[in-house]
Structures are given as structure tokens and as C-alpha cells.
Automatic annotation (TrEMBL), chain A:
This is ABC transporter substrate-binding protein. Its main location: periplasm. Belongs to the bacterial solute-binding protein SsuA/TauA family. SUPFAM superfamilies: Periplasmic binding protein-like II. Gene3D superfamilies: Periplasmic binding protein-like II. The keyword Signal applies. Residues 1-27 form the signal peptide. The keyword Oxidoreductase does not apply. It holds the Pfam family NMT1. It comes from Paracoccus albicereus. The lineage of its organism: Bacteria, Pseudomonadati, Pseudomonadota, Alphaproteobacteria, Rhodobacterales. Transmembrane segments: none annotated. It comes from the Bacteria.
UniProtKB/TrEMBL annotation, chain B:
This is ABC transporter permease. Belongs to the binding-protein-dependent transport system permease family. Gene3D superfamilies: MetI-like. It is found in: Cell membrane. It comes from the Bacteria. Signal peptide: none annotated. It comes from Paracoccus albicereus. It is a multi-pass membrane protein. Keywords: Cell membrane, Membrane, Transmembrane, Transmembrane helix, Transport. Residues 58-239 form the ABC transmembrane type-1 domain. InterPro entries: MetI-like (IPR000515), MetI-like_sf (IPR035906).
Amino acid sequence: MTFMPKALTGLVGAAALAVGLAGSASADTVRVALGDVASVEQLAFMVALERAKEKGLDYELTTFSKEELAIQALISGQMDVGIGTPYSVIQKSQAPLRNFFQLSKLVFFPVVTSEVSDWAGMDGQPITLHSRGGGTDAIASIIERREGINFGERSYVPGSENRVIAMLKGQITASIVDIANKNLLLSEGGDKFNVLPMFDVKASDEVLFANQEWLDANQEDVDVLVEALLSTWREMVADPTIIEKERQRFNLLSDLPPELLSDVDAYYREAVDGGLYDPEGGGEEAAKADFEFYTESGQLEGDPATLNVEDFWDLRPLNAAKEKLGS
Amino acid sequence: MHDVFTSKRFLKYFSFAIVFALWEIGGRIPISPAFPTFSATMVALWQMLMDGSMLQAYPETLQPLLIGVAIAATLGIAAGVWMGLSRFGEWLLSPVFIVAQAAPLAALIPLLVLAYGIGLTAKVMVVLIMAMPVIVLNAMSGVRSTNNSLIEMGTAFLGSRKDVITKIILPSASPVIFAGLRLGLSAGFIGAILSELLITPTGVGDLITFNQSRADYARMYAAIFSIIAVAVIALDFLEWIEVRWLRPDRKGAR
């Protein structure tokens, strides 16, 4: 049994690592965890971060290969601010996480190959979604309930862009993708794909969250960040081209190929038109919509009417920013 | 009494106990809220066994593993023996396997997905790429290291080429071939889990990812613990087959 000493050194190593990481936490820099490679979709958030930096917020952006790892780093205290919809995490985990700003809503479109023209045709058919327990998985569960159908096997491929490529290559026949990729699919695939009708979702897709203790201890930083976010979101909803202008000013994502960057304006125009962004940053209303949605999809337990907003959201920073910027 | 404490069996279980105790202590400190105790992990493991999620996950994970390891074992031993017997075979194939062994597989996964899609084929390929090189290269070096005077003796006694291969070279190479198989099986486990974590989450890889995304770390570590346990049992089983059926000379050496 030669594996035992190995396991032992592994364990000791992990312990040493945990102690080391906890010790290296610096108080001044806000450590932001991105669960995905930074691309055009994250630009609005990156613009807001740069604007906050101008106001004196020192931040550090770390990209994780997986959302799950980013959440874990946040719970362990190795990161300060994370992006996701951590409702079930908040309900389950011992770490007191709180949401404090809604970045985007779940605006997604079910697309299928053109052999299928209505939901009844999807009964028993396989569907490919983002991740188990994620937003698109939740949408699929609610569609099943409302349309009275059952999807066949569900498989998971993270990233709308990857699912669209697989659809174009004919490897998958049904998926739920975001607005930009739905448009890409229809423009590339033309009549080969159908978009099925979708119920109206008001729930959050991406929310900023942090540990309550950190939120309390760093109120000044949090306020600067949320003010920058709120003002950027309001300006963006009024004029989506602001993101590309600010991207050029801050020289963000300049290593991306020009073809992708030339789409920034189009992406934000589509996204704003599609209602992806709430210019008021979510807050209580978003929390209630999320309770409805995520209890129906099974990620949250309990009756949405009795769930307490304060158990999931810290509304103080958003309210402070609204007061400062005026409504 | 003294015999009991130094017996192999006792030491084996004792070292398990030490690791689990350290794990329990580490979880109770706690090192991090994301690090559950050993007992919480075992409770989660029990729940996952009872609610059927484990039973559902394992066939999915073991399918590409078994297919991949079976192909790697048959093709790998055949190729390795040929490469050991013939310089031409070695010249032709060994660079492929040496490169495959050295290549960081995780970086090649996008290429595999491009070529084989996201289904079973891609996962079997990952298992193959992990398992094949060690099996092939061990079989080759096993054949190569056959004692030359035994081969000379065989030919001196007018043994045919076939006799020499089946009665001298293969028996002499079999310990190294089996070592290669065991390494190949454990590499196959790595490949199967890697493909489930990096291509599409299914089976045990899905249990790990899903519970990590819900911050249910006890269940996440229970899934990891279970796959390690299954891998260890599978390796032990392979060794048992080897000793029991194929290499009676090693009986008692265990």
C-alpha cells in the first residue's frame, strides 16, 4: 500500500497551503474572482471596476477556470468579491455570503433544430445546458413544469458560445443560449434552427456577492464599487455605446482580436434591448424575483413568501449609492 | 502482542487511521469552511450511496474507463511486445508513446473535443492516451530485459521462434507487463475523472462539480473519496488476479 504516505503528504501539503493562503490576505486590495475568462460579456463590469479605481479603489481581478472554484475561493476567504447566483450556496454554506448588486438577468433563449417547432415536440428529447443546478438548468425545469413535458437526457456544456458551436456542427440538437449566441446561431444557421417561445424571467443570472464580514469591514471600498456600478449600469441602459467608449479609454481587453471587439457595441445594444441589465442594480425586487424563480426550479428550499431578503442580500451599499446618485 | 502491532495488516489500517484522524482534526479547526471533517464526509458518502446518486454516477464514469483500459491493455501489450521483439517496431512506434506519455493531457483536451466531440468517444480517447503509453513502454522493456542466456539456451535446445517467445520471453516479461497494466489502470482512472471534469461533467465528475457549485463540500469530498477508494480496490483486485491466476510464483510474496 504505497499510496498511504502519498495521501499523507498530500494532506499535510493541503493544510500548509490553506494556512499559507489565509496568511497572505492583504486588507487593501479588493480581490475580485471571475468564474470565466474575461470577454466581451464582462466588459461592462470591468468598465465599472476601472471607474471605481479612478475613485481610489484598488482591485485585483483573478480569473478562475470554473465558477465553482471561484465560489470555493470566496468561501475560504481567498477572494473578496465573486460573481454568480449563489442562492443555494448561501442557504447551505456556513460562510455568511450576501449578494449586493445584480449584474445581469437571466435572458436566455431556447433554440432547437428546425425539425422541432413547438414544446410538445421536445418531450423526451435531449437538451444541452450550461451546468447542473445553474440558471439554464433552472429554466429547463420550469419549462418542463409549465409545458407539461419532460426533456430526455440533460447534458452540460459550459458557455453559450460552446453550445452554439456544437449546435452548428450538429453535435447537439437543443439548448438554451444567451441573446448574442442566439443571434449568432440564427445568422449563421439561418433556417436550420428554431427559437421556441419562452416565458418571461425576471430572475438574476449574475449577482455580485461577498462575505458579510468583509462587506461590513470594507464599507468604503464597497460603496465606491457599488456607486461606480450603479452609475455605469444607468449610463449603459441609456446609451449602450458607452461601454465601447470606456473600453477604449481604459484600454480593456486590448488583446482580444479586432473582430470580437468590433462587436462590443452590437452586443451591448442587443443586451440592453433584451432587458439584460437592471439600471437599479437589482436589490429587493430582484431578490424576490429570484426567490420565486429559484424555489420553482428547486435550487432554493422553502416558500418564496417566507424567505427573508436580508438573509440573502446586503441592501445597504445599493441603497447608499442610490441616495448619493439620486434616483 | 508484539506481532500484532508490527503485522502488515495492522500497519496498513493504522496508517489509514492516522490520515483520517488528521483529516478530522483539520476539518474541526476548521482550516476553511470549504474543508469538511472526515465524519461529515462519511455521512455524506452514506447519504449518496442511499439516495442512489452514487449508483447512478458510477456506471457513467466506469464505461469510458473500462472501454479505454480494455483497448489499451490488448493493443498496448501487443504493440509493446512487438516493439520489444523488433527494432523496426520500436523505431516506428516508440516515439509516439514517449511523446504521448510526456504530453500534458489537459492541454490537449480542446483538440480531442474538436476531433471527437463531447461524447463517449472523446472520454475513451482521454483514458487511452493516459493508459496506453505506460502499458506499451513497460511491455517493451519487459520483453527487452529477458535474460539472453535463457534465449540462447532455448535456441540451443532447438526451440522454434514461437517456443522461445511463448515459453521464455513472455513468462520472463510478465512481471513488468503486469506492473505496466497496474500503472495503466491507475492512469486510466486519472483520465476518466479528468475527462469528466474538463470535457462535460458526467458521472463522478458531475457529482464533484455539482456539489462544489452548491458549496456542499462534504458531498464533494465524498465523491472524491469514493473514486480514490474504487481505484485502490480495482488495483488490489488486478494484483489479486495476477497472483491467483497468472503468476503462481508470486503467491506468498504478498
